[in-house]
Specification:
Largest sheet of chain B: 5 strands, antiparallel
Distance between the termini of chain A: 36 Å
Strand content of chain B: 25-35%
CATH topology of the largest domain in chain B: Uridine Diphospho-n-acetylenolpyruvylglucosamine Reductase, domain 3
Strand order of the largest sheet of chain B: 4-5-10-6-7
Number of domains of chain B: 3
Structural class of chain B: alpha+beta
Number of strands of chain A: 36
Structural class of chain A: alpha+beta
Radius of gyration of chain A: 28 Å
Largest interface: A-B, 79 and 61 residues
CATH architecture of the largest domain in chain A: 2-Layer Sandwich
Helix content of chain B: 25-40%
CATH architecture of the largest domain in chain B: 2-Layer Sandwich
Oligomer: heterodimer
Number of helices of chain B: 11
Mean pLDDT of chain A: 95
Low-confidence stretches of chain A: 158-171, 941-950
Number of helices of chain A: 26
CATH superfamily of the largest domain in chain A: Aldehyde oxidase/xanthine dehydrogenase, molybdopterin binding domain
Number of strands of chain B: 14
Chain lengths: 950, 289
Amino acid sequence: MSERVVVNLKLNGARRTFEVAPGRRLLDLLREDAGLTGTKEGCSAGECGACVVLLDGAPVTSCLVLAASADGHEVVTVEGLQQSGSLHPFQEALVTHGGVQCGFCTPGLAVTGAAALARSPGDAEERARLLAGNLCRCTGYVKVLEALERASSEEADHDTRRERAHFEEAPGHDPLGGHHERPDARAKVSGSTRYVADLAVPGMLHAAVAVAPVASACVVGLSLATARAIDGVEAVITAADLPGKNLVGVIFEDQPLLALERVRMVGERLALVAARSPESAWAAAHLVHADLEPLPAVHDPIQALAPDAPRVHDAGNLIRTFRVVRGHTACARASVVVEAEYRVGGQEHAYLEPQGCLAIPEGRQHITIVASCQCPFYVQQAVARVLGLSLAAVRVEQAPTGGGFGGKEDYPSELAACAAVLAFATDRPVRFVLPRELDMQVSSKRHAMVIRHRWGADRNGHLRFAEVETVLDAGAYIGISTVVAERANVSSIGPYHVPAVRVTTRVAYTNNLFGGAFRGFGAPQVTWAAEATMDRLARACALDPLEFRRRNLLDDRRRRTCTGQSVRRPVLARECLDRAAALAGWDEFHARTRHQDGPAREGMGIGLVLYGCNLHHGGQHLDRSSAVVILQSDGSVVVRVGLTEMGQGNLAACQTIAAQALGVDPAQVQVWQPDTTTVADSGPTVASRGAHASGMAILNAVERLRKRIDPLAAELLGCDERDVLLAGGFASARGDPDRRVPIARLAGEMASRRIEGISTGWYRSTERRFDAATGVGDPYEFYAIACHVAQVTVDAELGLVRVVEVSAAHDVGRVIHRDVLEGQIQGGVVQGIGWGTSEELKLDRGRLANPSFTDYIIPTSADVPRIRIAVVESEGPGGPFGAKGIGEPSLIPTAAAVRNAVVDALGIEIDRLPITPPAIVAALSDRHPFAWVAEEEKAHGRTEEPAAGR
Amino acid sequence: MDVPVQQVIRPTTVAEALAVLAGRPDSRPIAGGTDLMVQLRDGRKRVSCVVDLGGLGLAGIRQIDGGVEIGASTRMDSIAADDGVRRHFPALAAAAGTVGAWPIQCRATLGGNLANASPAADTAPALLVAEALLTVVSAAGTRRLSVVDFFLGPGRSALAPGELLVSVFLPLVQIPPDCRLVERFVKTGPRLEQVISVVSLAGRAAVRTDGALESVRLALGSVAPTPVRAQRAETVVTGRRPDPVARREAVQALQHDIAPIDDVRAPARYRRIAAAVLLDRFLQEAARV
């Protein structure tokens, strides 16, 4: 037993004394011993900044400070930034300027920003540099930097108040399309939002997992004795100890919760541990000894499909083949044909909050799961299956979720299943939070794909045919790879009119990390390839890429998609292209002489997407959702929905939709996080369907509720029931706005007369026809179109890509909440730039070699381009009030536009993503001015130097 | 989670610290902790006792006879902002401002950056071109050594067990008559801020009025098992104008000064080319300024 250390702090202004273990980090002292959970743990390695606090006034990452070292010093946490109950001006600006999304990075960001303000940061570049140690995966930093700028200007106070007064000043103003404060922003920015890791219940144990270090092996035996002997360990369990089915696959039953005989990927779960402290749990997990006999492995999806490849599962490595066959590509006459093979890499979600959940058992009869997740109903099903319980016996509450992007679609089911079996094994609550490296190593990834193209156009630059052959690397388990492939398959040719199409999309098992959902869901990869080929064809036809696209875009006359579906009018592809090109100054850029400052090369590129809104035909049975709306006696409104908030703004969207429909101030509407016991299964929060599906169910609930509100209102107003209007906080009579009654009074009257003030709502998408064998038909109900134009500067010697500007035009139907919409676009653009230029999954025999924010390089605040946004609204098909989802279209075309801009800048083709500095230098090959140094080195060997290296 | 150390000792004098370090072979000093805490957590370093240097008063920058002395516990943020360092040793000021991100710079110390002995240590190339002198103390006494002799390999330095780096002395530059001085630090990596350098370069050149380089010092990081001086490249350009021919020969010579490897951050070939680019640019700038 080690000694205790006394630590005296001036903590948020008060003198405090703590007695802690010598190895205590300041972060743990703050969170565990002082109960200040506003400071978050995102990476434990000083890279993400979520744990930043002020130590003697300077921002430091508290995960790297020994508590003992802080003895005698002053510490200020996010909780201490507020003064006399008011938020710090930067916090206030983050709230009012839409700078908060998932909120997990926000407290650290608020602290660093406050420190930056205290030293009066200089220009925009300096401000971006000071915040570069605080990673944010949601916002794209744009609104965060705007907030810092506002807070640093003297006008801050004034501006802030004006914006907040927005609704009150204009009581008749519709909430729809506004930018009122997000309902979750204030709690998040002050550090009071409780994420899973901030929740503790009496008697709670901590979970850990022992995983396989190799990609393919036979499990000969597991030795658990030394792990069980660790002090504090309450349970170590393996596959043999599971009460229900040893299965976690969402769609296919190919994945065990715990490995039985085979290891098929690095990170395969072997045993689970529950212990009284996380230290004991992880120490024990590391001591689980697995006797593994190596088996052959396959790591390339193309090789995996060869007949003699090692089989990942007994049935073979080809999981499924999807096709689109429309017209005869072989007969299509084309004067220009291009062929290419693209290798598009995967992506790590890098949400700032690691995966986590809390399982609270009740007598082995039922269980409550509190989880950071996108899909509580998936978690419910997974837990019920492994515990052998009915769905009704499993309650899942979604905890505030610190980013998802698809990464918390299916993996949380696995994590919750682990926590649940440990909770039942010990009859104690169990919290399971993954450390960052393990989270990156074991969770799903965007699929790597190999995409082969053969496309042809005629002499006039009109596309004649497109042949696409895609192979997805599913990894060792299917998960939802087939669903991803389904979307990739039908998204393969973009928003272009092509008379003959042949697409083949194959899904292959390998012994790599498993692929899963990630913002765009298969569309970003095929879009990247399609837009690359469009630029190739434009060059081959000697046409400007803009003009070539104009000749081929779908429009109100030529509306047939890849699958032959007629896009419902208006088809806004041309509108989006022209708006983005105008914002980007395409014509001016091409008219002027390009700057050639030494090795710096300028370029501009286009990317377009035709995004099928909501779920594909194959998943339409899940395209439903449920809502509950309760009008309280004081006129406030409770809304419950089944789709989740993970930072994207679903709470704000639902709040706005309900407020608009009921004519109340959004601040009167409280939308609660989903709980599987309050609404019916609403399907997953994926496919940009959050606001759509929950909004439609809310509108249905309000419509039903109004059947009871309107007669009463009509009675009070003395008008006809059909003439009751609800707006601006009042019920009024149509045509006589002076005759009105406050909705609060109406609600009170309803309550006192015992009129039912609760209503449920339901939504389901319309049935579509789609032939899975030919891939022809209507996979989606309607489409959204987006165009991004990127301008880059490339250092042609170091290979560094600097994205200077992205102009984004989006066909959104109708804006629900302006800040949320812009935040989605900005965040999607920056995440797309990361995927396209710096984020590389470096796999070494199936093991991720860079599972940290040190070496998995996501954009910082210093990498943000100028982002110009054109919102294209229309009276077309859509969801609530005509709105279309924005979450995914915001990301999909970005990397393609950047790729085309880089190619434009350098004059060489690039067929691999990501386009990192080494990738550019490799692609330049002999054209690099210093290519000879590497050759020279090879020729001379290293005879003069001793061989050196690590 | 706690890091696995059993004891923290917080001495208030250097003598006290040295006594602990001498008596406990399982002990290790900790200053900012920005490297050590990560290594303790992931098990790359196992240390049962850490000796916190925070109470020793080793932080501070002062002008002394013939140079500037920087205490080992001085934080990167202070070094980057110090007027004297910025004026006399701009490469060091620039390098200190690129260590991690701002919250790391507010914690990481110069002594820690050196003692960690990473080939990628950002301040190392700047100190190498400054030919900084390090003051090292132990129970046996005080010794001074040149930073040139300090780095032995990845994670290995000339510090013996029980020794403590207490300060770094940077001699003021003697600018030869009729010369102007050009000193730069640049690093390249996969993004603009918060990167571990894939290649870094510090250069200092005294440029004669005719454009020839009276003297040149070059040092690089992340291209060999330790930060290295590029003496072959220095020799090639010394006394010459850095015209295209001289620059090409310097780049050629540089390839024998460095020995990069393939690792998770970049392939060796990229590092060779990037090193060539950074050197070429420094020499071009020296010719231009």
